[in-house]
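lol ok so funny story. i was supposed to be doing the assay writeup but got distracted and ended up predicting the structure for this chain instead. priorities right. anyway since i did it might as well share w the group, maybe its usefull for someone
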Amino acid sequence: MTKIVNIGMNHETAPVELRERMATEPGNVAKALSFMRDTESIKEGLFLSTCNRVEALFTTETVREARRRMVSFLSELGGIPEESFLSALYSFEGMDVVKHIFNVAASLDSMIVGEPQILGQIKDAYAEAAKEKTSGVILNRLMHRAFHVAKRVRTETGIGGAAVSISYAAVELAKKIFHDLDGKKVFLIGAGEMAELAAKHLMGQGVNSMAVANRTFDRAVRVAEVFHATPVSFDEIGSQLTEVDIVITSTASPDYVITYDQVKTSLRKRRNRALFFIDIAVPRDVQPEINTLNNVYLYDIDDLKGVIESNMAQRQQEAIRAESIVLEEVVKFENWLKTLAVVPTIVSLRDKAESIVQAELKRSTSALGQLTFDQKKVIQTLSRSIVEKIINDPILFLKERAGRPTLDTYLDMTRRLFSLDNNKGDTG
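and the output, tada:
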């Protein structure tokens, strides 16, 4: 009987130095698929390789042998002795694999629950398997159901709706203050990675203008080129505060870069327009007292972390709802998988019925005389219709008993009753 097996490691079971040994080489996926295709004990295969997980998914009729061969291959692929990484591997079989793959696709097994990146990575892995012809009936169905589960989780729960990174949290807060970011202007001070990422996300939400300041003007120019922004000097910070709507700061300055007096002075020229500060620097760049000014909003790194923690808790609640969707879909897939056992017998029954129809039509040709094309077509349709109705009940009977312990008995009985095996002959 064909079994689905999954062997892998992820961010929870293996340190990064072990995962990267498996995932860094660009040709590793091709090597893995080639190995699966050439290994007799493996029928179908797919290989997922990301920075946070490496997984081999395959079907086999000899689980122990296929698992042994796959572990040996992973050892060779990473250049690591088996005893050095066996403790980092997890292995699933049967419906546990299905549940695991559905959880991974729905981002319930990710480092950040609800992140959408993993689904694209799984789709890429499946596309490679399809291209290399290592995926077949079972894995094709499993992958498409995994995509369906991910879509259901995304649309039926709020698991991806709350920001869980510093940059996304900054965007979320900006939307709450301004509602609509179209036409707003951003001022990026410093060139920290998180600040640049926040600026990038804001530009993607409708912000169409940006100025960049840095203590090293050359650095401001380079960053400005990335965002198609305007580079400005540190001396121009005061004047920029009268023009911009959102200020993101991330410098290494030991002193405040933006002071209470600077902001208060700029407000006289702003005509009550709101000014939003995102201070990601440690130590802080923006003097905290500016939060007391009207129409000025300041959030520092701790405020953003608080938003993230709250949103993570919200995602965990949504994950509980998502898990029920996964369990429902696992049952559906299991029911489909069970029907595969009856497929060969049903195919044999249909083939025999068709061969009888063709033989009897050929035998009756002389008795029927000269018939037109349309008349022949009517007789063929009538013959097939009668046969289909006769075999429909036995087919439904077998499908309804798929997965039951007595299925093999019913399959054997059907094959004997309809004499589907040539070596058994007609037992009637």
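Residues 339-417 form one domain. DSSP finds 16 helices and ten strands in the chain.
back to the writeup now i swear
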